[in-house]
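Researcher: Next entry: Alpha/beta hydrolase (Variovorax ginsengisoli).
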Amino acid sequence: MIADSEFAAIRWRGKDLRVEYQRIAPERSDAPLLVFLHEGLGSISMWKDFPERLCTAGGFRGLVFSRPGYGRSTPRDADETWDVDFMHRQAHEVLPAFFEAIGLQEKPWLFGHSDGGSIALLYAAEFPDRVAGLVVMAPHILVEDVTVANIELARQAYLDTDLRQKLGRYHDDVDSAFWGWNRIWLHPPFRQWNIEGELATIRCPILAIQGIDDEYGTLRQIRGIAERVPQTRLLEIPDCGHSPHRDQPETAIVATVSFVKSESSP
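Model: Predicted structure:
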């Protein structure tokens, strides 16, 4: 069902990088293609079996990859710092370069979690004709106090507990993954980051999912998407934190399958 990992070569920021990716059920040539965009500390392996379960349930194809700096993709240099526009650059530069490198020509569905959800939104806003639809779980469209407070707690846990060891299972260079994400989110100018005004150019359908108990953001995030993109459906899940695919996977799968199939109908 899942093909072995492959590596795509891209050039970004003046450097040659490799991007780790896996295909799910490529033999389903006529099925919708879901591209999975991981969270700020994620990777292919950190999704575990969720992408395969979702694609099996819906009869979809899947494409899962680790952004540069994560998983088995090229790590971030130790002295490389990310700018406030790092998610914009992932959406506007890295994602198109990756798609070109693997020869992707069709319109995929983007399934993004957390930072990956924000990147999906930014891609669809910049390239409205290149995407069939979006499923975004716990995306960020602005920075909230609760987000920063919990990212500060994550920093302390990384320094003082076994969090570094646990995350090391999912990344060849765990410091690359953690500090790239943590330092920019705690960088004071990043408090002004806001993409609300950019959402209006999105033309594809959106399913926005968030746990009611999300520790990294309030429901203002997905409700703000619906206010600006009228073709948005909202799913607010009780007894669910920041990761619906781990806390309430069946709810996320059923909702996604129903959404993609209904929006794929002629």
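Model: Note for the record: The beta strands are 6-12, 15-24, 33-37, 61-65, 109-113, 133-137, 206-211, 232-237.
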